[in-house]
Amino acid sequence: MSPIDSSSISRVQLFSAILYGTLSVVMVLINKLLMDSFQFTFSSFILLPQFILSLIIVESLGRCSWIKPVEFSTTTFWRLFPVGCVYCLHGITSLVALSGMNVPLYAALKRCSPLVNLVLGVLVLRKAPPSKGILVSVMLITGGCVLAVFADIVMDYKVYFYGVFSVLCQGLYLTLIQRESEETFSSIEIFYYNAMVSLFGTLLYGVFTDDLISHLFNMDIPFSMELWIVFAMTIAISILFNFSIIWCTAENSALTTSIVGSFKQGIQSIVGAIWFGDVSSNPLFFIGIVMNFFGGFLYSYLKALEAKLKRELKHGGRCSQQSV
Question: CA separation (Å) from 143 to 19, 115, 164?
């Protein structure tokens, strides 16, 4: 590969990571604004428009020849069915968890996703076990999160269950995306089938849990222009985010996406604490958040060092082959 090609690829990888990190921060904050300030806590109504519009956008762009059209295939649908199911579960559980947690605590919990990715990377992707430094950083991340949870004065076990389950789903989702993108599927294809499967999954969730039917005619909230603007922004940003997480993982890896998540969750915690202010005054809460954040930073730093070492070894191997 020529230097120009390598530079072009690295720019795409960097841009996909920055886009994912930025959209992720904005999406969490605007979802929290919608649910807290406007009391719009209806998960099905937040998710369904995202998936419907995602399908319409991909179909429209394909017909206009702006992207390669995605032709429906039953084989591909069932191949990517698990990816869509896991993402649907992730979306629903994340919204429920966010509605009952403050933003710093939610970010701390989400920062535990590298632990899931490490385990799944070894079990599913057959990667080598992590180094001692990585294990220490993951212990700091998880230990800090546990401290923050037990220091939370308003402990809702149902909310925490949804939060932990969303972390497990996120780790599995990223691992599945990486596996499928490394084989034959493009980011657009995964995005398209993911939206299709998630659409049916959200409908089933809304019907069987009564989240959709009961709220369809009984939304006891005042509708205003501000609400519609925030709701429209939530849908638009969520669609872009859904594509960015697939693109970032496909261009980089599940682990890289988790690393970017560790950095953006630090920003998310600070902005969320200032903006919403619903933070526990318990010292253990702040100690836990600091431990969690430091563990995330250490983890990211060590993974960056590992990646640099691998590149240097690979470059050294090529140079030695050329000299021979």
Answer: 29, 12, 14
Three-class SS of 163-224: HHHHHHHHHHHHHHHHHHHCCCCCHHHHHHHHHHHHHHHHHHHHHHCCCCHHHHCCCCCCCC
Written in H, E and C, the secondary structure of 214-283 is HHHCCCCCCCCHHHHHHHHHHHHHHHHHHHHHHHHHHHCCHHHHHHHHHHHHHHHHHHHHHHHCCCCCCH
The token pair that represents 34 in the structure block: 């919608």
pTM recorded for the entire structure: 0.71
Angle of CA points 296, 247, 22, to nearest 5°? 50
Structure tokens at 317: 């191997």
Q: What is the pLDDT of residues 51-97, one digit of tens each?
A: 999 999 999 988 888 888 888 889 989 999 998 899 899 888 888 88
Tokens of 48: 């369904």
pLDDT in tens, 232-289: 999 999 899 888 888 887 777 666 676 676 666 666 666 656 565 555 566 777 787 7
**Token representation of residue 52:** 């419907």
193 pLDDT more than 70 = yes
Structure-token match 């604004």, residue found: 33
End-to-end CA gap in the chain: 20
What is Dmax (Cα atoms) for the chain?
76
Taking the C-alpha atoms of residue 74 and residue 71, their distance in angstroms, rounded to an integer, is 10
Give the type of residue at 18: I
- 45: which 2 tokens? 């109504």
- Tokens standing for residue 38: 């406007």
- Map tokens 């988790």 to a residue: 258
pLDDT at 17: 80
Using an 8 Å Cβ cutoff, are 39 and 180 in contact? no
